[in-house]
Amino acid sequence: MRQMQLDPDARRGLSLISIPFAFSILLLAAPLMILLAMSVWTQDFLTLDRTPTLDNFVEAWTDPIYRTLMLRSLKISIIVTLVTVCLAYPAAYYMSFVAPNNRKALLIFLITIPFWTSYLMRIFLWKVILGFNGVINGSLMGLGLIDQPLDFILYNQLAVVVTLSHAWLPFAVLPIFVVMEKVNRAYLEAAQDLGDTPFWRFIRITLPLSMPGVVAATLIVFVPTIGDYVTPKLVGGPSGLMIANMIEVQFKNANNAPLGAALALSALLLVTSVAGIFVWLNRRYLTSEGAA
Amino acid sequence: MSKRILTTFMIVFTLFLYAPTLLLPIFAFNDSSIIAFPLSGFTFEWFYSLTEADELRGAALNSLIIAAASSVLATCLALLATSATVRYKFPGKGLMIGVIMVPMFLPEIIIGVSLLTVVLLAGLKLSIYTIIMGHTLICTPFAIAILRSSFQQLDPSLEEASLDLGETRFDTFRRITLPLIMPGVTSSLLIAFTISLDEFVIAFFLSGTEPTLPVYIWSQLRFPQRIPSVMALGTLLLLLSIGLLTLSEVLRRRSVRRLGQHDTSGAW
Amino acid sequence: MIELSNIEKHYGSYHALRDVTCHIKEGEFFSLLGPSGSGKTTLLRTIAGFEGIDSGSVVIGGQSMAGVPPNKRPTNMVFQSYAIFPHMSVAQNVAYGLRAQRLGKTRTTEMVTEALGKVGLAGYGERAAHALSGGQRQRVALARALILKPKVLLLDEPLSALDRKLREEMQSELRHLQRSLGITFVLVTHDQEEALTMSDRVAVMFEGEIAQLDTPQALYKRPASKRVAEFFGAMNILKAEILGLKGGIVTTRIEGLGVAEIPLGPEADTHGGNKYCAGVRPELMTVLDDGESAYPKENPAIVTDVEYRGELTYYDVKFDGSDTPVVVSMRNTTNREIKEVGQKVRIGWENASAVLLLEQT
């Protein structure tokens, strides 16, 4: 009845948010729609053929090169996410539950500082660490442990995983830490008072209550990883290349933007559906069980 | 027992985090054009060489302009979005703020290629403006995350009291809201500035003839003989970032003290 | 001064204010009293202009407030949290609302000094806002609102954050301030004692409705309903059967006490099939000593519990032929003996001891 009439507060809120929202629509949603349109067109040498076709998607999903790159990107994203979250969790736990209160701000400061090193430099420095004449090989040879440099540590997927995990660590630590900080310490005391050992207290109280932080960390790491361009290019070698490198090739060198658009959207679809399944499973099994 | 394991883990974890960063100054001062151990000697040569690179100056200027513009734009957009979501209830709120926050979770390459597609189709020229737009888009969610906590710590009755005492909404924002969320605004500006300064992928896709600093660095990484200079540049950038971050923390602590509040938030 | 007519307000499906109508007189100390969630704060914020209303009207000083924002209303408010601006000094806080009047520095300083003096904070102007105690913050909030010479001062639970001693001090101080200034005060409180001691009139609110509006004495003596009666101090609620109505006097059979003739209150209405019960205040009955017979009515009872509280003694008694325990309080004067549990006693009362109360449906 009076639903269409908005009270002044609602109107004020709407008018305030309309500007940033319009900005997002104009620069995010609309370009994504245009990207979608581009992906169903065809590059005909220098001109665009605007008859809608799914050929680019068919190519993106069936051509072995693209399929290999796509699956490899997904695999690397999953592994990177697992490694990152598994390393970030105990670090966040330490910061929240073990470190004294007056040290927490300092610890956060400490773990964020290295990440104000230029992103490109950080990745390049991993190349220096893992390289043929790099820090690891140099040290191992200096110690007399090996006679010649190990060549399997750079230019492969392992190097990509190490480098990306390192790059994402603070982004994973912070959301987990924030959620852990909100856990009421009385719950832990209550659990112990009711007879839980520290191990069971962790399994039954801390872990389920910190799950929202883990989910946030997972999403923050997992989705963007599939689009990483620099790391595979610098430390991946031919066997470590990922889909983003191919998207760049299609947009720039190969001048086939429609295929690039189809590849980009396919990759996005792939990660968001995997992420969606993850969130759904988590809601369904982990969190609800923790709450019950 | 488990405490000791965790502490050991934390030390190893921190070393792992710092490993690449610690190498940066080492090679920046190393008197050799090859980036490898063993080290050969101490030199300032690579820092001097930076003063002679004209291209670098142009790229740095572009980056500063882009970072300044996008941090201000992102913070303004975030102020609007945050004051709307923290203070008011309205239909479609969750959806709208969701759309605005999406870039935080989106691979940057998607933003890069979609903006590139628009520019290509519209027949526009790539320029620093396209990069500013892209960076504003990715910085806004971070600015919102920072400002949201500032707004939430602000007692809404302070704004009501100002209105009640006869001030207009605009003057209330100017005299009450803004001074009280200033630490958040400062952090938001600094964080957005740093994100933009460091962002590579979007800039890489959207820069035409005017590279940003990361795009310039990327182009230099192909030439082995330029790498020591890049290390020197990286060292300077690191110092700049740490300086900005420390400044933001100092400002935040000072304002916390001035307002006599309890220090609840972390280093940001 | 303030005329509220037929105000309705919903938050989604929640009915926050139901057909609220009341008239607050000029220069009166008016209280809105009710439990949390009764709509009293919403009503105050409606007067201040912070909450819109679905229908009805707010008129202040003869002017309709429809569409008038809070900053244009002739009201000022003391917030529950006091809302002292933390980044300003005491003087800056107090001078805050004067900016629009462009009075010049000297005049502003004069007015601030005067306002601070009025609330007992002379010389505190340069203090930082966060260096104040709870009571001082409240005084600053008062000075800041009063300096604008509002027609109406709105106070949202201003004393709830203070400890008991300070609260009692501030109660009488507020009362004196209101009398000397002659400004209309509207106070929101959940504390019935506070409402009774400070106000000229009190509106008791339940679930978004004004249940009764009257002077403190009338509210205490002649509550209209069981709920209002129970909100103000102790009240024995007894079953009542209406036997007849004649000339404004209701003849009622009260459980345990017998037949009483009670004057009909203004809000009561014995027609429409409403259910009634009787209420008797503990202090309006007397546990009679042997040979004492100062009351027109007497009923035999047995003492089931005795609670000695120094100044008063509370007896739980049961009347013959009734199972409902009834509380009777006695002032411990020098001659009066304290009865014991199990002792048979006579309870003295009169018609005026009982009131007829509307039961909630």
List keywords for this structure.
heterotrimer; A: 292 residues; mainly alpha; MetI-like fold; 2 domains; two-stranded antiparallel ribbon; 12 helices; 2 strands; disordered C terminus; B: 268 residues
Description:
The complex is a heterotrimer of chains A (292), B (268) and C (361). Chain A is mainly α and 292 residues long. Chain A folds into 2 domains: 39 residues, no CATH class; 233 residues, MetI-like (MetI-like fold). Chain A is built from 12 helices and 2 strands, in the order H-E-E-H-H-H-H-H-H-H-H-H-H-H. The two termini of chain A are 39 Å apart. The C terminus of chain A is likely disordered. The model of chain C has no long low-confidence stretch (mean pLDDT 89). In chain C, a hairpin with a 2-residue loop joins strand 1 and strand 2. With 361 residues, chain C is of the alpha+beta class. Chains in contact: A-B, A-C, B-C.
Number of self-contained structural domains of chain A: 2
Average per-residue pLDDT of chain C, rounded, comes to: 89
Count of discrete domains of chain C = 2
Uncertain runs of chain C with pLDDT below 50, 5 residues or more? Answer: none
What percentage of amino acids of chain A are in beta strands?
under 5%
Mind sketching the topology for me?
The complex is a heterotrimer of chains A (292), B (268) and C (361).
Chain A: H1 8-39, E1 42-44, E2 47-49, H2 55-62, H3 64-98, H4 104-112, H5 119-130, H6 135-142, H7 157-182, H8 185-193, H9 198-225, H10 230-236, H11 243-251, H12 257-291
Chain B: H1 2-28, H2 45-52, H3 54-87, H4 93-101, H5 108-122, H6 128-153, H7 156-164, H8 169-198, H9 201-206, H10 213-220, H11 227-259
Helix pairs in contact in B: 1-11, 2-11, 3-6, 3-8, 3-10, 6-8, 7-8, 8-11
Chain C: E1 2-11, E2 14-24, E3 29-33, H1 40-48, E4 55-60, E5 63-64, E6 75-78, H2 90-95, H3 105-118, H4 134-146, E7 152-156, H5 164-181, E8 184-189, H6 192-198, E9 201-206, E10 209-214, H7 216-221, H8 226-231, E11 236-246, E12 249-254, E13 258-263, E14 276-280, E15 286-288, E16 297-309, E17 312-319, E18 326-331, E19 344-349, E20 354-358
Parallel strand pairs in C: 3-8, 3-9, 6-7, 7-8
Antiparallel strand pairs in C: 1-2, 1-4, 4-5, 9-10, 11-12, 11-14, 12-13, 14-20, 15-19, 16-17, 16-19, 17-18
Helix pairs in contact in C: 3-4
